[in-house]
Amino acid sequence: MKLLQKLVACSFFLCALNFHASAQITALTSTGREVFLYEDGRWEYAADVPSEKIEYGENKGTFKKPSGARFPVKSNKVNLTVYMDVSKWTFSKGLADDASEYKFQLKGEDAYAMMITERAEIPIEALAQIALSNAREVPSDAEIVMAEYRNVNNIRVLCLQMKGTMQGIKFMYYGYYYSNENGSIQFVTYTVQNLFESYKKEMELLLNGLMEND
Predict the structure, then answer these.
(1) Which of 109, 120, 142, 186 has the highest CB neighbour count under 10 A?
(2) Cα 24 to chain center, whole Å?
(3) Domains of the chain
(4) Residue 146: which residues within 8 A CB-CB, separation 6 or more?
């Protein structure tokens, strides 16, 4: 599944951020298109293309770090750590030209994850819009399947499930998005669509290891 990993690496994550004194952030998508991010969560292309309306649900359940997730993978950019089960997952640092700070793989399987971090505080719903926009620029027919807020280890994250097709490969993303005054994170698992249900439980257990540092 090396092709899937390469496609994901160049797909829908923010590549650069530039801050302005006004109440907006100018960002570049992975293909170089300029967008404006506003404090209220709205976004738009610099060419005035309107953002897509996304319905956000609210999951009333609580999500906790699994008991077997004991190994800490600590971000060097934001005050967040992912606790993982080393009997199930491996991890490595992203390369200098990677969007991700860390990469993960379910041992011997075709399930992967990326931890993308920024020191900038970004409205969470703006992150969701940018993720969807970049996924469609690869090109692909990406669409959001599910979007809901969750309480994960006492932090309120946005959970997104997104599907699409890139170069004939039907992919599925499943991840958590979070931002505070210390920075932002996109912690996203992914695989091909026909394997998603078989990996979903392990993906969610990995995602639920996300915690703020004390």
Answers:
(1) 186
(2) 21
(3) 2-212 (3.40.1000.10)
(4) 57, 159, 160, 161
